[in-house]
Each structure stands twice: as structure tokens, then as C-alpha cells.
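Hi Y.,

Following your request, here is the sequence exactly as I used it, all 526 residues.
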Amino acid sequence: MSFLFRKQNTNCIEFFLGLWKYVAFIAKKDLINYNDSSRFITIIKRGLSMKSVDEPRLREIVGEQNIKSDPSDLYVYGSDASVHHAMPWVIVKPDTTLQVQKIMEYANQESIPVTPRGGGSGMCGQTVPSQGGIILDMKGMNRILEINMPDVYCRVEPGVVDDDLNLALKKYGVFYPPTPASSRIATIGGEIANNASGVRSVKYGATRDAVLGMKVVMPDGSLVSLGARTRVEASGYQLHKLMVGSEGTLGVVVEATLSFVPIPEFRCMGIANFDSLQDAGEAVGSIMSSGAIPSMLELVDSIAIKAVNKTMNLGLKEVAAALIFEADGMVKEAVDYEINKMKLICERHHGKDIHSSYDPKERAKIFMGRKKLFPALSKYDDNLSSTSLADDMAVPYSKMAEMAGKIHEVAKKNDIIMTAYGHCGSGCMHTKILMDTRREDQWQSARKAITEIYEYVRSVNGTTSAEHGIGLSKAAAFKAEKADSLKLLQIIKKAMDPNNIMNPGKLIQAPDNWVTATDLRYSVNS
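Below is the corresponding structure, written out as C-alpha cells. Let me know if you'd prefer a different format.
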């Protein structure tokens, strides 16, 4: 049971002691002020709404050590890397498929919400339990089940960390390409849930391109096998692809069959500086339309450069923008050809200080600023926080320059700071909103800015999310983009999860106002 209901027959005194424990814990975390009556009442109501969970039954399934319901644990599991926070009722940590089946069967019978969770590095609130219920912590299912070199696939459990998988594959001279920047903590299950990708998606594709098949526990506890272990498959509906990007709203992935590729013999990385963000953006479009095959093509703007210089003292030239480009392959002459082609295009777009290197140390130096950019942005201004909101839209290559400029224009108009950077070779433009999170007016400005950004994205035939998913933060923009298919999405959800227990309140069900969708992780002054 949740910490409010330690015993199956809780009397009134025990109940209110539990409720007070909950309120006191929240207050201790500076999430409420007792003088703020409306906020205090909201917290009381939330505590009262928490349903009884049969902890003894769950302990029988997963063992005493794999159940957590202490307020401090629930608080930690109530957030990810997004701005959102909501308390679950209990945390359950299975380590076998059978345990997942039994948990889901119980939750379905009792109509208890279940939110699958991996490393918790998501940026849009996908694993924030907005309607309470069970957090299903999948990190314990972290076994690499098979590496099959003759048939070029591996089978893994969802809790396998991306870097750990690539470390195991490296022994065989191969790698799993869709690695995101958070690969040290991101799990394969989480990457599947959000169709994650990373810096090399421009050449090797996203998670969906590497998933051959999977096993999924459905909301009623049944186990299904989807896809195949072959490179191609045309045997009916591609249901394994439907699960990719479903954000835990349709079922629980308990095993994945993934393809891998050979580690290139040669990698060369280059950088070009630009005095104009417009020129850098246009260079991206020219590179991608030229027939060049970069294995990486990243853009960083002046705000990003200043942030990494301040944080890491890299000594990068503080120009309007920089492009980082890479080519890889098994033949050096082919890599040289691609690198030189990209250099020439950068020159034609007024790039300067252009250089490249095959040396691993020099490559690491070139890429260091981009790799550490996300945490570095928090240090851009000590009075501002970096928030993940409109953070990974995708637009056509021909609109990359305009998109970058639009971000800065909208930020200035709304009195906030927004940076433009990302995997521009795959059409993905990242941004973070830097603002004073203590000020309520800054949150309203951020909301206006996000609305304007996504209106622009839709106007140029872009898409709401390139790799981070929708969750809570981007629901309004997602629903506006997919307006003509929302009914179909609702039918799919109802058919696969009739009791609506799988991560409810996300994607098509998420509120349009992300500011009030949950508590914010920040203390905001009215």
C-alpha cells in the first residue's frame, strides 16, 4: 500500500497521521507554504486522492527489497529531467518478465495507473506519474540476453544502459548507433518508448530504425511477441514499430531485438565558425542537399558557446555560431572526400577557422563543448535556470537557418533567453529556455514563446518532437499538429489499454496547459 495506507484496515487516526506525514514532507521540500491556503488545500486534496495499493501482494511478487513507499523515495521518483513533478503511490522494481506480468494483471484488475520508468532522463514528463499509481522501475531488468554476430542482432532487457550495451558490443567490433547524449544513464527501454536518437542519427537513423522486434507485457498481463529477428519483415501490421515512441502508454517492453553496425575504421571531425547564425543554418541545408554523407552535423549558437566557455573554460571563439561535422567509414579516402566536401560548403557560406582531425584526442576536444552543453547551459547566468520545454522540434533542411533565427526572435520578444543548437543534420533543432524560475511572469512568457515557436514549426511542415517525445510538456503542440489523426490515436489507445492504466494523462490525454498539468519542480513566487 502507499505510505498513507500501511495497513489494510487503517483507522481514522492512522489515516490522518499518514496524511500529515505526506503534507509535512512536501512542506519540508519547500513545495508549499502553510500561509498559501490554495496551494496547501491542493496538497491536502492530492493526499486524500491517493488510493490504497496492496503492498503485501506486490511484495509477494517482487520481494520486500523491491518495494518502496517512503515519502522521500516517492518524491525522487516523482520527477525526470522535465519541469514536472507528481508523487506516485508506490515504486515497484521487477527483475523478471513474469513479475511484470503479475504486476500488470493486478493493476489492471484494480484500475491502478502504471508508469514504466527507465533512467529518468526524459525531458518532457513521460515518467512523471501525473495521476499517481505505480512507478514500474525497469532498471533491474538489465541483462544482455544474446549477441548474435552471424545474424547481426542482439537481444536485451529494457533496463540495459545504452553505454553498457555499446561496451559489450565493442568487443565484437560493432556498435548500436541511436545513442543519445544521456547514454550513461539512458536505458534501451526508455529509448524505445521515446524513439530516441542522437548525434549520429543523420547517418544511422533513430531507435525505430534499429528495432527488429520486441516482447511486450500488455496492460492485462499477457505477453506478446512483436516483429522478428530478420532485417526485413512484411508479415502484417508492424506492431513493434507502433510501440516505438508510444511513451509507455500501450504496454511494457520487457525484451528488445536490436540491430547493430560495424565500428568504422576511420572517423574525422571538423569545426567551422560563423559570424552569422543565418550562414551556419544555410550551410546545414547545403551540406544535406549536396549528397554529402556526414555521420554527425551539429550546430551551436553564441549562447551555447558562451555557456560551455564559462563552465568548462574551453576557450572557444565566441562567434555567432559553429558547425561541428564528422564523416566515418572503412576507407580513409572516402572519409577524406566527405570531410573536404563539407569544408568547401562551409567556406562558401562564409565559415572561417575551419579545421578537422582524425586524432581521437583532438576530436574529443572539438566535441567536448557540444557533449557537455546541456548541463553547461545552467551556468550561462547564475540567476537563470535552464529548462527543457520546446526543446527538440524538427524542420525541413531548407528552414534550419530560419528556425534558428526564429528562436532568438521569439526569445527577445518574450523577455527570456533561448539557445539554438542540435542535430541539424537530421533536422532536429534543440533549444532550452533560460529564465528566472522563481518568477510566475517568466513561466507565462515561456508558455507564450513555446506557442509561437510551435506555430512556426507547423507552418513550415515541421514536427513537434524529433527525439525526446511529447509527455506532458508538448501536448498542446502535438495535438495541434496531429489534429486530423487524434481520433485514430484514441481508438488505438482504447483498444490496447481499455482500462486506461498505462501511463494515463500523457500524449493525447495530456492537458493543453503544461504549466498547470502537474506541480512544477521549481518554487515559484506568485
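The CA atoms of residues 136 and 302 lie 41 Å apart.

Thanks again,
Q.
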